[in-house]
Amino acid sequence: MIYLDNAATSFPKPEGVIRAVTYAQRYAANPGRAGHELSLSAEKIVYYTREKLALMFNSSVENVVFTKNCTESLNIAIKGTVSQGDHVVVSSMEHNSVLRPVEYLSSKGKITYDVARVYPDNDEKTLSEFQKAIKKETSLVVCSHASNVFGSVLPIEKIGRLCKEKGIVFVVDAAQSAGMIEIDIEKMNIDILCLPGHKGLLGPMGTGVMIIKNAEKTETLIHGGTGSMSLNLKQPEFLPDKFESGTLNLPGIAGVSAGIDFLLTKRNSLEAERALINLLKEDLKNIKGITVYDNMHGKIFSPVLSFNLLNFHSEEVAEKLSQSGIAVRAGYHCSRLAHKTYETDKNGTVRVSVGLFNQKKDIKNLVFCLNKIAMNNNM
Q1: Is the separation of the CB atoms in 90 and 99 below 8 Å?
Q2: What is the pLDDT of residue 31?
Q3: SS3 (DSSP) at 12
Q4: pTM, full prediction
């Protein structure tokens, strides 16, 4: 099978990740919950993984919180930060993991929110839209770093600077950029960075990370045992314990650690992945009836490309490709706003997302199959 759905979950996983997940089962102990050898060994895995993530994103080790996925991280960041009567701004490229929590809070009368339109080919216009959307009641801005549908990258650093100037908490959804595009929390003025472990970091499913600067500004959604302050019925207020009640996913965290190690050996990986997307763009131009949704004009982008084929619903094209052994994703990709922005909300799009293990031959095989589909359509 040719796997071109890495924006959902990276595949295949490096052998080191598989070994790390398997080996972690030998500890069978809760990290930070006891002083025996197994528990201490488990705690070392957790600490070293925090350390790697802190170095990767320019944060402090204690600010790295483990969750079960990026969606959980975003729910904590959003629901735990806002107060009654607050106003929130999101971008027009948001995934449902941002939009649904915000819409839920709005439906309950807790907050109001506005959507800042993104212009993928014009960062200044995008920034202007955020400026116009911000009100005196605005306490939170939530923004995707890169679109999971179209690969467009938002001007995070400029938006972060704007938020800092106005004293607004800035949350970034790095689901499609962490591990691929450089992120510096301090430089970009990010207050809370949310990311998955199973995409760009090459780890297993069921792993997420929330890197948070200030624990005081955000409440936890879950209360319970942390292995600390056990005689106190109140949840610890210090990081990372405040947000890590219950048993951590030790095998998953070990896998993330191994994924980061592998990733660090592939320093030019993003350039290679972008080269494959550019190759696909050029080849698709020669197929009659294909519309490619690309207005990045040479700007930085994540390795994702969406397109449609005339007279076919996107899911029909994906099904035909699947029959030929090619895995892509089609439909709406849990991103209603992004499709509205690109005016593809009628049929969705076919999405190709490449990863570290894809090669030119994968793209050539995809193009060959699309040519066959298009030719049969025109006969």
Answers
A1: yes
A2: 82
A3: coil
A4: 0.95
